[in-house]
Each structure stands twice: as C-alpha cells, then as structure tokens.
Structure to design on (694 residues):
C-alpha cells in the first residue's frame, strides 16, 4: 500500500474533523470576514471629521473668517462654540469634542497691524491617533491660513509677495495618496489571518492526537513521520490559500484595494509564509504538554507577533527597540512587507528578494527544528 | 537475525526495563508467551502493566533488554512487529468525533487493508459485535462497552497474530464484559495470541496463563490453578456481626497468614486445616461468627499475594 493512500486517508480524516468541529470551522471561516470588517471598516485609522469646538474671544470679522476655515475643512467638524477655557474641560470630559480652537481677543487687531497673531489649539490627548493627526492638520491649516493673511496684508501694503519667496507647504503621500487605512491594513490583515489559522490549527491538531491517545495507533501503523507531516499540513495549507484568495478578492473588489504587483509573487511569498507558520505550529505541538497549553502558545506566538511585531498595526519604527529586535524572530514582518509591496507599490521579485529569501530560510529552519523536536518527543 | 523461526513464541521478552525519571516502571521482565495462549497480566495499579504492554507494542522504547513478538525484535524490527499486532491502549484511542464506520475505515486504510477486504471485514466484525446498526454514530457517543468493542474491531481489521490489550474492559458493564471475552475466546480459537491486562479476577480465571506483576517485576506466573495453589495454608470465611472489628482482631492471631475483607465476609488464610481448629482459635479471642472452609479463587489469591509482597517489602 502506497504512501499516497496513507496521506490521503489522513487528509480526508483531517477535513472530517474540521467538518464536525463547528467552533473551529466558525473560527476558521468567520475570523477572516470578521477581521476584515473590523479592521478595514469599523476600526478605521483614517482621521476625518474630528469633532471640534471653537471659542471666539475676539469677535471680529477676521476671527470669524479664521474659524470658518475650520468649518469648511474635511478634517474638522465644528460641533459647537463655547465661552471660555473652563468649558473645554467639560466638553473633553463628555467626549463631545476632541479639539478646541481658541481665538484670543486682539486677534483681528494683530492681523490688521501685520503682526503675528496667535491662536490656541487644545487637543484631547486621550485618543492619541486623533490628537496626533488633528495637531498635524491644525498646524498645516494655520500655516496656510497665516500665509494667505500675510499675502493679503502684503497686497494691501503694495509689497511684492513673490519676491519675499515664501514657501507654500505641500504634503504628498505616496502609494496611498488618499491615506485610506484599508489600503494599508488589508495586505497586513491577510498575514495576520494566515498566521493565526496555520499556527493555531497545526499546533492543536498534533497535540490532540497525543491527548486522545490516537498517536499510539498512528505510531503502530505503517505511516511514516514525513507522511504524517504532509497529511497534517496539507489541509491547513489548502485552507490558508483559500482564505488568502478570499481576502484578496474581497479587498480588491469590495474595498477597492489596488493590486499593483503580480499575484504570482504574492502567492510565492504566501506559500513560503504558510510553511513558516505551519512549522511554528509544529514546534509548538512538539513542546506543548497539553491541548490548553498548545492553544495558549499558539495564540501567544501567532496573534501577538502578527499584530504587534509585523508592522501590521504599528509601524515597526515606532515600537520599542527591544521588541523590534524580537520581531526578526517571527516571519510575519517579512510577509507584511511582501504583501504591502506587491499590493501598494507594485514590487516584484527584484525588490522583494531579500524578504522572500528570508522566509524560505526561516521555513527550512523552523520545519527542521519541528522534525527534530517531535522525533525526540516520541517514545 | 531477521528470520522468523516457525516455532518462535508469540512473545519473548528478556530483561525488559524502563523507567520514567526516578521511577522504575518495569524492572527487568523476562517473559515467554506460547502462540495461541491467552495470558492474563495481573498486578496492582502502578505495577508496570501498561509500561510492559506499551514496550511490546513498540510505542515505548525499553531502556534495556529486548522483546520479540512473533520472532521480531520490538527495538530493531518495529516495522515488522507492528503489522502483526493489534494494540488497545488503556485509554480509548479512537476519534470521538468520527463515526464508527469512519474510524474503522481510517485505521484500516492506514494499515494497508485493501478496499474490498476493508468492506467485508468491517461488516463481519461489526456485525459479530452488534455494532452494525451504529455505523453512522460518532464514536464518542457510544456506550462504554460499545466503544471498547469498536476499538477491538479496529485493531482486528488487519488480522493481527498477537493482541496486546491494556485493561480493555475496565469501566465496562458485566454483560458487555462477558460479550467481550466471548469475542476474545473466538479469536483465540482461531489462533490469535492474546496478552491482556485486567483488574478483574473473573477474567483472570479465563486465561490459559497469568502473570502477577508487582513493582515492575514478575512475582508469580502459572495457570490460574497454579497461582491459586501458591497460597500457603487454607482459606476460611468468617461471617461476623461486625466484620471490620473481626478483621482487626483476627489479624493478630497466631496461625493467621493473611486476612482481608470480601464484602461483609472476613477471609482468613489460616495455618490450620480444619474448621474446628479455626473456630477454637477465634473463640479463644472472643470473636464469634460462622466459619466455613472456602475454595481459593483468583480474587483471594490476588489480594493475598499482593499483601504478602507488601509485607516482604516492609520487612
């Protein structure tokens, strides 16, 4: 009887397990959908319509014109006015607004005199992302406004403003000009999902054989070690690829994610990454004493690194240096780079070969470690 | 030595030893099981029964010594041993989420049983065991007795020469136990050698030979009759109003070799040969109750041998 028959029997069995296990099935199938919706839709890192209150203590046409520039911007949504700073505290506490703009008395007079007029912008720092972005836009807006005021003033005084050589600030964002966070998140999200499914399921499926005692029955069958590995890994490889295809399809058609590079390069990277993840799962299954510990280790070594140490949610440059070093231990960061490279930058093998090579090396090492560990574990 | 001598015993172990950390589970076991016999493996919990069976099944490597099953070494020719054995671990080791048919099909395919044979053989086995109506039932939802029968059927699909059964009827109701043993008897008649660990003494009586294992060593071996004959003195049963008090009083008496409770009856192994002498001795200590001579059964032999072994260790 051939090895193919035995591997086939194992693969059929694995899919039967999956079919019977509603909860795992739900996790495996619903997780990607749920995460897509959550990350690419509900939890948007896009910052627009930041609720803003304005406090006009100057009450001149000039101050009114200045505050109108906030109201007409997409980034700020003026939700009301207030009388003094004391009100700002209350408004922030009630989460009615994140930003307060205060135009002090004398603003109009200063502008008319050609002097530097000051305004105060208060930010609710308890929501750092909105605060950071809001600050950036407030500064930009003030710069632009201040300039136009200066130009008007210069005009009125009969001066040549172009000769003054003032700079016009101009911000351009590459690859994702509209700064849509879904473009940024979906390529990373597929990495997270593949990693979670592959690592978790592989780890659990081998430990379960041990807990059920069926590993002994497998051991006294002619099934060889490598046949067992293939039979155990093939179903999850197939599933990971199906999910990858689904996420890509939904991303491109539903979220209008640009796919600028080649699908082939993406598939190559994904294949290598899947092997890395499966290998990691095998290592866990070799060292975990119980199903629970395999589950915990699987979560710890898949979700956390995939979220935090991959550049998926936070830029790798912004996490602590010690963790940055740690991120090299996990394959996720390379795959996030490949995925974003292919989708957003149209990168190919010429640009991504270091990441592809690293993943290939990682896969070889981690699977070798897994084989050694589980061989030592037997008997 | 790769040949299989025709007359080689079904199982032959020499100096098998295995420890887990500091605990020596099997401490140098020699064993020879002729083909076609039913060997019962007896002994208290922790005696090393499971460890011994797992080594014979090639799923556990011995620290020292070796064993041959049907002439093949379990350490060096494991892949020749495994096609010839069926192994039931103490724990039910089938997939609880798969159906009866799926479990039996999976393991048979893995074992290389051809498709036509798989169908015919599984039908024959499951029908014989009364499981034919439960083909679609998930294994985890079967009763204890049915689970064990299914497990046995699964290990029989590739027609093994030797069955290694680790307490296959523990936790199974008495009716199912009898049925299980009827199946074993049929298999044995057809030539299968059976090694079965059991905590049930009535099952031990049905074996052609028994081995008494304690502390990882073979303490006694023989036919059930021989084991029973190992007991010194004669066995008497004492019916007393307060059995526990009577047991305590009896234990200190001269001439008492061993005593234990059997339900409400005190069973006493006495260094005397007639009821009158025993009654006199008991009456002298103020213990009254009905005394009668009893035949030694495996239950008593087991209890007394274990007790004597413990005393020996204490001494």
């Amino acid at each position: 009887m051939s090895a193919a028959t035995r591997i086939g029997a194992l693969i059929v069995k694995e899919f039967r397990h999956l079919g019977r296990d509603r909860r795992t099935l739900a996790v495996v199938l619903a997780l990607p959908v749920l995460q897509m919706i959550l990350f690419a839709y509900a939890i948007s890192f896009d910052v627009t319509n930041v609720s803003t209150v304005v406090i006009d203590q100057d009450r001149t046409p000039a101050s009114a014109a200045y505050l109108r520039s906030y109201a007409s911007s997409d980034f700020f949504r003026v939700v009301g006015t207030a009388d003094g700073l004391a009100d700002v505290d209350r408004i922030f506490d009630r989460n009615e607004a994140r930003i307060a703009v205060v135009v002090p008395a004398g603003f109009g007079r200063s502008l008319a005199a050609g002097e530097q007029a000051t305004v105060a912008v208060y930010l609710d720092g308890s929501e750092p992302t909105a605060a950071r972005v809001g600050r950036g836009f407030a500064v930009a807006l003030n710069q632009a406004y201040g300039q136009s005021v200066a130009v008007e003033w210069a005009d009125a005084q009969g001066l040549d403003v172009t000769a003054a050589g003032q700079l016009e600030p101009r911000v351009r964002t590459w690859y994702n000009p509209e700064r849509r966070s879904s473009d940024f998140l979906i390529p990373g999200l597929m990495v997270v999902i593949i990693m979670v499914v592959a690592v978790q399921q592989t780890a659990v499926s081998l430990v379960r054989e041990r807990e059920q005692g069926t590993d002994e029955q497998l051991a006294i069958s002619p099934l060889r070690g490598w046949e067992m590995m293939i039979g155990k890994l093939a179903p999850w490889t197939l599933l990971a690829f199906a999910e990858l295809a689904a996420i890509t399809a939904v991303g491109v058609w539903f979220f209008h994610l640009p796919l600028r590079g080649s699908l082939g390069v993406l598939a190559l990277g994904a294949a290598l990454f899947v092997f890395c993840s499966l290998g990691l799962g095998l290592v866990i299954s070799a060292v975990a004493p119980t199903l629970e510990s395999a589950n915990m280790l699987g979560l710890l070594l898949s979700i956390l690194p995939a979220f935090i140490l991959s550049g998926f949610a936070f830029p790798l440059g912004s996490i602590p240096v010690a963790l940055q070093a740690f991120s090299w231990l996990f394959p996720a960061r390379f795959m996030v780079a490949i995925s974003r490279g292919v989708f957003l930058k149209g990168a190919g093998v010429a640009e991504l070969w270091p990441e592809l090579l690293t993943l290939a090396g990682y896969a070889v090492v981690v699977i070798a470690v897994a084989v050694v560990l589980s061989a030592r574990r037997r008997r | 030595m790769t040949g299989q001598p025709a007359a080689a015993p079904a199982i032959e172990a020499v100096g098998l030893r295995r420890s887990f950390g500091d605990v020596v589970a099997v401490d140098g076991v020699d064993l020879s099981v002729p083909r076609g016999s039913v060997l019962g493996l007896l002994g208290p919990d922790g005696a090393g029964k499971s460890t011994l069976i797992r080594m014979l099944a090639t799923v556990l490597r011995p620290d020292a010594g070796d064993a041959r099953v049907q002439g093949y070494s379990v350490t060096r020719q494991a892949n020749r041993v495994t096609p010839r054995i069926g192994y039931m671990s103490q724990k039910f080791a089938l997939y609880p989420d798969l159906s009866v048919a799926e479990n039996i099909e999976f393991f048979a395919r893995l074992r290389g049983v051809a498709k036509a044979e798989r169908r015919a053989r599984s039908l024959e086995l499951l029908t014989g065991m009364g499981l034919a109506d439960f083909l679609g039932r998930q294994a985890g939802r079967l009763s204890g007795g049915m689970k064990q029968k299914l497990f046995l059927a699964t290990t029989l699909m590739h027609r093994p020469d030797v069955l290694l059964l680790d307490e296959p009827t523990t936790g199974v109701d008495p009716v199912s136990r009898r049925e299980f043993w009827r199946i074993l008897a049929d298999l044995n008649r057809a030539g299968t050698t059976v090694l079965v660990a059991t905590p049930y003494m009535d099952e031990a009586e049905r074996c052609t030979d028994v081995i008494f294992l304690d502390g990882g060593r073979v303490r006694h071996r023989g036919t059930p009759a021989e084991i029973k004959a190992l007991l010194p003195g004669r066995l008497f049963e004492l019916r007393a109003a307060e059995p526990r008090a009577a047991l305590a009083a009896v234990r200190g008496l001269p001439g008492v070799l061993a005593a234990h409770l059997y339900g409400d009856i005190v069973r006493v192994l006495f260094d005397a040969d007639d009821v009158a002498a025993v009654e006199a001795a008991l009456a002298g200590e103020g213990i009254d109750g009905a005394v009668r001579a009893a035949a030694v059964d495996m239950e008593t032999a087991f209890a007394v041998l274990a007790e004597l072994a413990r005393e020996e260790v204490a001494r």
Notes: Chain A touches chain B at residues 1, 5-6, 8-10, 12-13, 16-17, 20-21, 212-214, 216-223, 379 (CB under 8 Å). Chain A is about 70% helix and 5% strand. Confidence is low (pLDDT under 50) at residues 160-173 of chain A. Chain A has two domains: 3-43+180-378, 50-157.
